[in-house]
Amino acid sequence: MRRASAVALCVVATLWSTAAPAQRPTRPHRGGLWGEFGFGPGLVRVACAGCTNVVSSNGPTSHFRIGGTVSDHVLIGFEAFSLLDKAFQFSLDVSTSTAETATATVVILWYPGKRGLFFKGGVGVAAGQYAIPTSATQADTSTGAGIALTFGTGWDWSISRKFAVTANVAAYVTAVGDIVVPGRRVDDVIATMYQGSIGFTFR
Amino acid sequence: MAVAQSIAINTFVNRVDAWVFKQDWARAGTRAWGRNLRLGWEWDEDAFPTNMFAHPYHGGLYFNAARHNGLGYFESVPIAFFGSWTWEYLGETYRPSLNDWFMTSFGGIALGEMFHRVGATIRDNGARGRSRTMRELAALPIDPMGAFNRLLRGQWKGVGPNPPEHDPGSYVLRLGGGLRFAEGLVSDSGIARMGAVVVDLLYGDQFGQEYKSPFDVFSARLILSSNGGFQALRASGRLFGSNLNKPTARIRHVLAVNQRYDYYKNPAQSVGGQSVEIGINSRWRFGSKGYGVRTSLFWDFVILGAIDAPGTGLGERNYDFGPGAGSRWEIALERHGARFLRIGGQAEYVHTVSGASADHIIDVSGIELTIPIAKGFGISGHTYVFNRDSRYSDAPRDRRDYSEARLMLVWTKAGFK
Q: Is CATH 2.40.160.20 what the domain over A25-202 is classified as, yes or no?
């Protein structure tokens, strides 16, 4: 049932995008000042120095992008992204911690053709925060800051001249240094996040 | 073709390491690939020159495979990332190294584009005979992928037009050889004396030409020493430029966004990294003979830097990795871009994300004076002071300084338009 709904949604979206050529703007994608916000499911994999395995977890993600136009095919912008997991599992005996990883990057969006397909790459800074509750009202919080690299692809579906719905798939590689959790120090943390999202684009 | 050549580079390097050098780490098969894909990134423990120079040079091969197959600078960027990513995940039994991916990709782009342009300048499609062969051979170590592709296409001998990169417009090449005096380099006390070679190249002139494409203007400095060999390599290329006032004005101000590659290795600082900087270059012209004063003021974001940290680091590695930020400034007396007096400084902050839990502040400042003595030749003196201040969360603070001077005979060749 769920698969049938997804197929129907894809068909509707495809028909919408192909059956309304009159609504398509002269420039097929974003132009001038543009902005996008979106959200969707994410997966985070945390590795560290000396770790023999990685910790994987799911969580909701959100992003916000704003930028301008460099040329007909290239856009530049700023992107903020975050993934929040309220049941993050640093180890088998700790499953109640909250992990939040955020990035702030400069991104380049490249539209290779005249349709809505684009590829994204960017680099910037990252921050990670891990909170482990020690009582009903208190938590041990550890933060780290470092670098972020992002790659992804997406598709802008034109809804109107000023508005588009954007599908995104992206990866974020972040390095946030050492994280200290009760009884354990996790060295040189690398958190790799994968995001699938739907965005709303104003252009 | 660019993707195929980047895969071919990886396959060739991997097989040479496995069959010729008998390296176990090169025997990566499906089991290692599966493990690498499952576990993902980690930090590696390679030596400083390996991570900070050899890998960027390797990345330049990917980038130039793309450049020599018709792709522009920006179109070649994904090829550098792709080549490095596939090597990290599929080329070694070790887990993929995040620092390698950064250094190979970003460093490969910076060095690759610089080598691509230097190679194109050395080569001359209009030359014939021995001169032509010598030019092709001279460009080979700088731009191997260019040499390979030209060989495939019969361009080592074919006569034809040169690419636009062949002519930098204005340029200054300065070669210096002489003595280097370094305090505390060989022993704890006293001043050691050794040989030094300094190569400076200014390709293009941001005041002489409008921005056309990335690295249409770049500067590079290479320092070799009889003690320790490869001591420094720095390259900074213009990614974007814009005039802030009229190009015909006597006082000019130009906004520039540069991509920068740094590699320094000395007792106070083993420092390197990949950066993007933004700032203003200015020029005040005097008279009609090309004399003037140039100033630069730039702020940078260090995408990923490395700095030595004895007793810390990770495993066998004795340096840290981290992002950072900083600034640099310069005031120079010049003629047609060739500096005669140069005063400058640079300060950088690096926050460790792999290695010791630390924050590092480094700075370097120096003066260079070149006195012409005959046509093209001159005497040049340099003096520099390097400082570092490292603050660790769980170790004593480390403050060091190191000074050195150079006295050299220099030869300058310049062209201007």
A: yes
